[in-house]
Specification:
The chain is globular, with a radius of gyration of 18 Å. The protein has a single domain (2-272), classed as TIM Barrel (Alpha-Beta Barrel), CATH 3.20.20.140. 42% of the residues lie in helices and 15% in strands. With 278 residues, the chain is α/β, with parallel strands linked by helices. It has helices at residues 18-28, 43-53, 72-83, 107-124, 136-145, 160-168, 185-193, 217-221, 234-245, 249-263, 267-272, and strands spanning 2-4, 30-36, 56-59, 90-99, 128-133, 151-154, 171-175, 199-201. Helix 3 (72-83) runs parallel beside helix 4 (107-124) and helix 9 (234-245) packs across helix 10.
Length: 278
Protein backbone atom coordinates (compact mmCIF):
# COMPACT_ATOMS: atom_id res chain seq x y z
CA UNK A 1 0.00 0.00 0.00
CA UNK A 2 1.32 3.42 -0.99
CA UNK A 3 0.21 6.92 -0.02
CA UNK A 4 0.97 9.88 -2.29
CA UNK A 5 1.31 12.53 0.39
CA UNK A 6 1.33 15.42 -2.09
CA UNK A 7 -0.41 15.59 -5.45
CA UNK A 8 -2.31 18.48 -7.03
CA UNK A 9 -5.20 16.69 -8.70
CA UNK A 10 -6.95 20.07 -8.78
CA UNK A 11 -4.37 21.46 -11.23
CA UNK A 12 -5.60 22.57 -14.63
CA UNK A 13 -3.45 19.86 -16.27
CA UNK A 14 -5.78 17.23 -14.77
CA UNK A 15 -9.05 18.98 -15.57
CA UNK A 16 -9.85 16.77 -18.61
CA UNK A 17 -9.16 13.41 -16.96
CA UNK A 18 -8.77 13.64 -13.18
CA UNK A 19 -10.94 10.56 -12.59
CA UNK A 20 -8.89 8.48 -15.04
CA UNK A 21 -5.65 9.71 -13.43
CA UNK A 22 -6.92 8.64 -10.03
CA UNK A 23 -8.04 5.26 -11.40
CA UNK A 24 -4.57 4.62 -12.84
CA UNK A 25 -3.02 5.42 -9.47
CA UNK A 26 -5.37 3.02 -7.70
CA UNK A 27 -4.56 0.28 -10.21
CA UNK A 28 -0.86 0.88 -9.53
CA UNK A 29 -1.34 0.43 -5.79
CA UNK A 30 -1.63 4.04 -4.63
CA UNK A 31 -4.45 3.62 -2.15
CA UNK A 32 -4.74 7.22 -0.99
CA UNK A 33 -3.68 10.68 -2.17
CA UNK A 34 -3.38 13.92 -0.22
CA UNK A 35 -4.52 16.91 -2.29
CA UNK A 36 -3.30 20.25 -0.90
CA UNK A 37 -4.90 23.50 -1.97
CA UNK A 38 -2.78 26.39 -3.20
CA UNK A 39 -5.32 29.23 -3.08
CA UNK A 40 -8.67 30.09 -1.53
CA UNK A 41 -10.33 29.64 -4.93
CA UNK A 42 -9.29 25.95 -4.85
CA UNK A 43 -10.76 25.03 -1.47
CA UNK A 44 -14.03 23.66 -2.80
CA UNK A 45 -12.28 21.84 -5.64
CA UNK A 46 -9.82 19.91 -3.49
CA UNK A 47 -12.58 19.00 -1.05
CA UNK A 48 -14.76 17.64 -3.88
CA UNK A 49 -11.89 15.73 -5.50
CA UNK A 50 -10.97 14.09 -2.21
CA UNK A 51 -14.55 13.01 -1.60
CA UNK A 52 -14.91 11.66 -5.14
CA UNK A 53 -11.66 9.69 -5.07
CA UNK A 54 -11.75 8.49 -1.48
CA UNK A 55 -8.75 10.69 -0.75
CA UNK A 56 -7.66 13.38 1.73
CA UNK A 57 -7.12 17.12 1.35
CA UNK A 58 -5.47 20.11 2.97
CA UNK A 59 -6.46 23.76 2.87
CA UNK A 60 -3.95 26.57 2.58
CA UNK A 61 -2.43 29.38 0.55
CA UNK A 62 0.81 28.55 -1.30
CA UNK A 63 3.67 31.07 -1.15
CA UNK A 64 3.70 31.38 -4.95
CA UNK A 65 0.07 32.51 -4.76
CA UNK A 66 0.68 35.24 -2.18
CA UNK A 67 1.02 37.99 -4.83
CA UNK A 68 -2.57 37.31 -5.95
CA UNK A 69 -3.93 36.63 -2.47
CA UNK A 70 -5.20 39.27 -0.10
CA UNK A 71 -5.56 39.38 3.66
CA UNK A 72 -9.23 38.43 3.36
CA UNK A 73 -8.11 35.04 2.06
CA UNK A 74 -6.89 34.24 5.57
CA UNK A 75 -10.42 34.90 6.79
CA UNK A 76 -11.70 32.59 4.03
CA UNK A 77 -9.26 29.90 5.16
CA UNK A 78 -10.35 30.41 8.76
CA UNK A 79 -13.99 29.95 7.72
CA UNK A 80 -13.22 26.93 5.54
CA UNK A 81 -11.25 25.18 8.28
CA UNK A 82 -14.04 25.77 10.77
CA UNK A 83 -16.66 24.51 8.30
CA UNK A 84 -14.61 21.35 7.60
CA UNK A 85 -13.77 20.65 11.22
CA UNK A 86 -15.92 17.54 11.22
CA UNK A 87 -14.72 16.30 7.83
CA UNK A 88 -12.39 13.31 8.31
CA UNK A 89 -10.82 13.95 4.90
CA UNK A 90 -9.34 17.28 6.04
CA UNK A 91 -5.91 16.22 7.29
CA UNK A 92 -3.74 19.36 7.33
CA UNK A 93 -3.27 23.04 6.65
CA UNK A 94 -1.37 23.35 3.40
CA UNK A 95 0.30 23.90 1.11
CA UNK A 96 1.94 26.76 3.00
CA UNK A 97 5.52 27.89 3.39
CA UNK A 98 8.23 30.08 1.93
CA UNK A 99 9.81 30.18 -1.54
CA UNK A 100 13.14 31.99 -1.75
CA UNK A 101 13.94 30.63 -5.20
CA UNK A 102 11.41 32.26 -7.54
CA UNK A 103 12.43 35.87 -8.21
CA UNK A 104 10.11 38.77 -7.51
CA UNK A 105 8.28 37.35 -4.50
CA UNK A 106 8.03 39.55 -1.41
CA UNK A 107 9.62 37.61 1.49
CA UNK A 108 7.84 39.69 4.11
CA UNK A 109 4.46 39.10 2.48
CA UNK A 110 5.18 35.37 2.30
CA UNK A 111 6.15 35.34 5.97
CA UNK A 112 2.95 37.16 6.94
CA UNK A 113 0.77 34.58 5.16
CA UNK A 114 2.83 31.72 6.60
CA UNK A 115 2.54 32.94 10.19
CA UNK A 116 -1.19 33.62 9.85
CA UNK A 117 -1.70 30.06 8.60
CA UNK A 118 0.50 28.55 11.30
CA UNK A 119 -1.71 30.27 13.88
CA UNK A 120 -4.81 28.73 12.29
CA UNK A 121 -3.16 25.30 12.27
CA UNK A 122 -2.33 25.71 15.96
CA UNK A 123 -5.91 26.66 16.74
CA UNK A 124 -7.31 23.69 14.84
CA UNK A 125 -4.69 21.26 16.14
CA UNK A 126 -3.79 20.33 12.56
CA UNK A 127 -0.40 19.45 11.09
CA UNK A 128 0.91 21.50 8.19
CA UNK A 129 2.21 20.63 4.71
CA UNK A 130 5.19 22.88 4.02
CA UNK A 131 6.60 24.28 0.79
CA UNK A 132 10.36 24.53 1.40
CA UNK A 133 12.43 25.95 -1.45
CA UNK A 134 15.72 27.65 -0.57
CA UNK A 135 13.97 28.60 2.66
CA UNK A 136 14.61 25.85 5.22
CA UNK A 137 16.34 27.98 7.85
CA UNK A 138 13.74 30.75 7.64
CA UNK A 139 10.92 28.23 7.93
CA UNK A 140 12.55 26.58 10.92
CA UNK A 141 12.75 29.99 12.59
CA UNK A 142 9.01 30.58 12.16
CA UNK A 143 8.13 27.05 13.26
CA UNK A 144 10.14 27.46 16.46
CA UNK A 145 8.25 30.66 17.22
CA UNK A 146 4.87 29.18 16.26
CA UNK A 147 5.17 25.42 16.82
CA UNK A 148 2.51 23.24 15.22
CA UNK A 149 1.48 19.59 15.40
CA UNK A 150 4.18 18.47 12.96
CA UNK A 151 3.40 17.60 9.38
CA UNK A 152 5.40 17.16 6.17
CA UNK A 153 8.24 19.19 4.68
CA UNK A 154 7.24 18.59 1.07
CA UNK A 155 9.85 18.06 -1.67
CA UNK A 156 12.63 18.34 0.87
CA UNK A 157 16.01 19.25 -0.63
CA UNK A 158 17.98 20.76 2.24
CA UNK A 159 21.02 19.69 4.20
CA UNK A 160 21.28 16.79 6.62
CA UNK A 161 21.34 19.28 9.50
CA UNK A 162 18.17 20.97 8.25
CA UNK A 163 16.54 17.58 7.80
CA UNK A 164 17.33 16.70 11.41
CA UNK A 165 15.91 20.05 12.56
CA UNK A 166 12.58 19.46 10.78
CA UNK A 167 12.40 15.93 12.16
CA UNK A 168 13.06 17.26 15.67
CA UNK A 169 10.02 19.54 15.24
CA UNK A 170 7.79 16.58 14.37
CA UNK A 171 7.99 16.70 10.57
CA UNK A 172 8.43 13.94 8.02
CA UNK A 173 10.34 14.71 4.81
CA UNK A 174 8.74 14.26 1.39
CA UNK A 175 10.70 12.52 -1.38
CA UNK A 176 9.44 12.33 -4.96
CA UNK A 177 10.52 12.56 -8.56
CA UNK A 178 13.67 14.61 -7.91
CA UNK A 179 15.30 11.67 -6.12
CA UNK A 180 15.25 9.64 -9.36
CA UNK A 181 17.90 11.85 -11.01
CA UNK A 182 21.40 10.40 -10.87
CA UNK A 183 22.91 13.88 -10.51
CA UNK A 184 20.80 14.69 -7.41
CA UNK A 185 23.65 13.41 -5.25
CA UNK A 186 22.82 15.21 -2.00
CA UNK A 187 19.14 14.35 -2.22
CA UNK A 188 19.87 10.69 -2.98
CA UNK A 189 22.31 10.60 -0.06
CA UNK A 190 19.58 11.89 2.25
CA UNK A 191 17.08 9.35 0.93
CA UNK A 192 19.60 6.59 1.60
CA UNK A 193 20.91 7.70 4.98
CA UNK A 194 18.10 9.41 6.89
CA UNK A 195 16.27 7.26 9.42
CA UNK A 196 13.52 5.36 7.65
CA UNK A 197 10.90 6.82 9.98
CA UNK A 198 11.68 10.31 8.62
CA UNK A 199 10.57 9.60 5.03
CA UNK A 200 7.27 9.86 3.20
CA UNK A 201 6.64 9.50 -0.53
CA UNK A 202 5.00 11.96 -2.91
CA UNK A 203 4.75 12.92 -6.55
CA UNK A 204 3.80 16.63 -6.47
CA UNK A 205 1.92 15.73 -9.66
CA UNK A 206 1.71 17.23 -12.22
CA UNK A 207 5.05 18.80 -11.26
CA UNK A 208 8.55 17.40 -10.47
CA UNK A 209 8.47 14.62 -13.07
CA UNK A 210 10.77 11.65 -12.44
CA UNK A 211 13.69 11.27 -14.82
CA UNK A 212 11.84 8.88 -17.14
CA UNK A 213 9.26 11.59 -17.91
CA UNK A 214 11.69 14.51 -18.21
CA UNK A 215 12.39 16.08 -21.59
CA UNK A 216 15.29 18.47 -22.17
CA UNK A 217 14.74 21.86 -23.76
CA UNK A 218 16.18 20.49 -27.01
CA UNK A 219 13.82 17.52 -26.95
CA UNK A 220 10.86 19.79 -26.27
CA UNK A 221 11.93 22.07 -29.13
CA UNK A 222 12.04 18.96 -31.32
CA UNK A 223 8.37 18.35 -30.56
CA UNK A 224 8.60 15.84 -27.74
CA UNK A 225 6.08 16.78 -25.04
CA UNK A 226 7.12 17.04 -21.42
CA UNK A 227 5.76 14.02 -19.58
CA UNK A 228 3.00 14.83 -17.12
CA UNK A 229 3.68 13.50 -13.65
CA UNK A 230 0.86 11.46 -12.09
CA UNK A 231 0.33 9.66 -8.77
CA UNK A 232 0.57 6.37 -10.72
CA UNK A 233 4.32 7.07 -10.97
CA UNK A 234 4.70 6.68 -7.20
CA UNK A 235 5.46 2.92 -7.19
CA UNK A 236 8.39 3.41 -9.56
CA UNK A 237 9.67 6.35 -7.46
CA UNK A 238 9.36 4.11 -4.41
CA UNK A 239 11.46 1.47 -6.15
CA UNK A 240 14.24 4.03 -6.65
CA UNK A 241 14.18 5.04 -2.98
CA UNK A 242 14.09 1.40 -1.91
CA UNK A 243 17.10 0.68 -4.12
CA UNK A 244 19.04 3.57 -2.60
CA UNK A 245 18.34 2.19 0.87
CA UNK A 246 18.89 -1.47 0.04
CA UNK A 247 15.29 -2.21 1.07
CA UNK A 248 12.49 -4.06 -0.64
CA UNK A 249 9.75 -1.94 -2.22
CA UNK A 250 7.22 -3.70 0.02
CA UNK A 251 9.11 -2.80 3.20
CA UNK A 252 9.53 0.79 2.04
CA UNK A 253 5.83 1.07 1.18
CA UNK A 254 4.79 -0.22 4.60
CA UNK A 255 7.18 2.09 6.44
CA UNK A 256 6.37 5.25 4.46
CA UNK A 257 2.63 4.62 4.79
CA UNK A 258 3.05 4.33 8.56
CA UNK A 259 5.13 7.52 8.49
CA UNK A 260 2.40 9.33 6.53
CA UNK A 261 -0.12 8.40 9.22
CA UNK A 262 2.27 9.58 11.92
CA UNK A 263 2.64 12.93 10.13
CA UNK A 264 -1.05 13.31 9.26
CA UNK A 265 -2.94 11.26 11.88
CA UNK A 266 -6.34 11.65 10.22
CA UNK A 267 -5.06 9.44 7.40
CA UNK A 268 -5.20 6.44 9.74
CA UNK A 269 -8.99 6.01 9.83
CA UNK A 270 -9.24 6.73 6.08
CA UNK A 271 -6.76 3.97 5.30
CA UNK A 272 -8.40 1.58 7.73
CA UNK A 273 -11.75 2.11 6.01
CA UNK A 274 -10.45 1.24 2.53
CA UNK A 275 -11.55 -2.09 1.10
CA UNK A 276 -8.92 -4.77 0.90
CA UNK A 277 -7.11 -4.77 -2.44
CA UNK A 278 -8.49 -7.22 -4.97
Amino acid sequence: MLVDTHCHLDADEFAPDAAAVRARAAAAGVRLCVIPAVAAAHFDRVRALAAAGGDAYALGIHPLWTPQADEADIDRLDTALAASRGDPRLVAVGEVGLDHFVPGLDPQRQAWFLRAQLRLARREGLPVILHVRRSADALLHHLRELPVAGGIAHAFNGSAQQAQAFVALGFKLGFGGAVTYARALQLRRLAAQLPLDALVLETDAPDIPPHWLYRTAAERADGQPQGRNEPAELPRIAQVVAGLRGATPQALAAATTANAVAALPRLGPLLAALPAPA
